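Q: Hi! First time doing this. I have a protein sequence and I read that you can turn it into a structure. Is that right? Here it is:
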Amino acid sequence: MLLRDAKERYAPESIAIGGFSQGAMLSLDVALAADPAVDRVAVLSGLLLADSLPALRAQPPNATRPAVLVTHGSSDPILPFRSAERIASVLEPRGYRVTWVPFEGGHEIPPLVVTRLREFLFGALP
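A: Yes, that's right. Below is the predicted 3D structure, encoded as structure tokens:
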């Protein structure tokens, strides 16, 4: 309802959502079932929730699929690196464009991720 209201009220050219850690998980969950569809979702140090899978399976073949940015630290002590790697292996066969950005580090948002997020959302900026 929030996305629909925002789209009707402001008529944005595109809608992007994202988050870090639990916010990343929620963003991905919302993006998989969003109506209206979102254009981009950024998953920073998150994972795909088991509760998100039914919405993913229920999507019709011609459904709009957002571009997905996934970033994760290789030594994250909070959320396993493998869980983030799994996002691409689940989404790509279903037609999602996933950009995977692993980095050396833990449960954080390093400068590399800020740069890649900016590029993902706005294109390359000086």
